[in-house]
Amino acid sequence: MIGKKKNKHKDNPFYDPSLNGRHKKSKRFKRFTLSSLIFSIAFLAFFLFDITSKGTPAFKQAYLKVDVTYNEVVKKNYRKAIDRKYRKIVSRAYLRTIPMMLEENPQLMGQTISVWVIADDQVDQYLKGHHYNMKDKDRALVDQMKANGNVELRFNEIFFKNGDSKSPEYAGLNSAIVGSILTMIITMLIAFPIGVMTAIYLEEFADDNKFTQIVEVNINNLAAIPSILFGLLGLAVFINLFGLPRSAPIVGGLTLALMTLPIIIVSSRAALRAVPDSIRQAAYGLGLTKIEVTRDHVLPLAFPGILTGSIIGLAQAMGETAPLIIIGMIAYIPDTPSSVFEAATVMPAQLFTWAGMPERMYVEKTAAGIMVLLTILISLNSLAIYLRKKFEVKW
Questions:
Q1: Nearest to 117 by CA among 91, 137, 136
Q2: Helix crossing, 347-355 with 361-391: angle to 10°?
């Protein structure tokens, strides 16, 4: 019939009329997934660019070259150690250290020395082209000093050497880094052996009965509950019941160990389950006991997966803030802790505190701290991938 398109599939008994529609849906779904991937990569790139652009300036610190006078008057009034016109542009935190420097170095008494001192946070932000709050005369003085070569931007060693401080230019991550290390040591010493032994028992030795089923369900549920609940548990048990010191790495490590345990148990069980039963049967055929089979054959083969899951669990615990806020590890800690029983803070809690500070310099220090934390977390995850690839057995 003229004007009508002939259907070439009319005589094909295997032709599915919905095929064209399904192909179109498949193409739409493919475009949707590709768009989602592009959006995720773009968001990640924007996040990294934003953090890097804000945090990179924090690795530089402004220094000013001024004359510092050491005499008896300075011991009572440290502000008189420098000329009046420089007092607004020099860090007050540095001026407070001058009497202590004089006590440690009595040979400085009666001398006036030109030294490089740390600039005030507003001067630092002005020199970096950021938002600042300075008077015109102070800004003109800084410009004059810069023209005379008395202003420098140096690598910010203070950021890694000092603890927290009320003066933004003197605030650093040292106490938080040490606190994080001590906390993670406690977490791993508690969570790793208990988690692995629990997984071995449940997977290799426990009978399949009501009790073990209830235990497995509760372990899986614990791996999914909000982390702040573990903080409440740590506060109730370790601080209120056992009387351990508040804000100490020992309490933080035990609390994070409770949170990490379910993750280690689940990942370790998955690694043990991935070992083929033929390995076990062959070992039994040689007359080995169940303990010998598990210890000498199953566990070594599952260890790469166990180690990978444990490192990922440790990395997750290192980025936690909520449970540590509950047990007080967000306190102001200027000094570096020397033991697990002293008050300490951790990097995520320190960054959380800085993010709420009004001074503009804390913004870049928060971003720089996030860069440091991300570097550590990426390193831990890379280590997990490396160990898995290195020790993984192909079946």
A1: 91
A2: 150
> In sequence order, which ranges of 83-129 are alpha helices (DSSP H)?
92-104, 121-127
Intervals of the chain under pLDDT 50: 1-3
- Residues 151-209 have pLDDT tens digits of 999 999 999 999 898 889 999 999 999 999 999 999 999 999 999 999 999 998 988 88
Q: 184 CB contacts (<8 Å, ≥6 apart)?
A: 253, 256, 314, 317, 318
Looking at residue 251, its pLDDT comes to: 93
pLDDT on residue 256: 93
Amino acid of residue 336:
T
Report the C-alpha gap between 257 and 254 in whole angstroms: 5
State the DSSP code for 294. I
What are the helix (H) ranges across 112-170? 121-127, 136-147, 158-161
DSSP state of 152: E
Collapsed DSSP state (helix, strand, coil) of residue 381: helix
Residue with tokens 């300036």: 57
Parallel/antiparallel/unpaired status of strands 60-69 and 151-155:
antiparallel
Tell which residue, 263, 349, 250, has the closest CA to residue 314: 263
pTM of this prediction exceeds 0.70: yes
CB neighbours (10 Å) of residue 13? Answer: 5
Integer Cα distance of 113 and 96 in angstroms: 17
Q: Which amino acid is at 312?
A: I
Q: Residue 195's closest CA among 274, 263, 251, 110?
A: 263
Give the distance from CA 329 to its chain's centroid: 15
Q: Which two tokens stand for residue 236?
A: 């109730």
- Report pLDDT for 1: 44
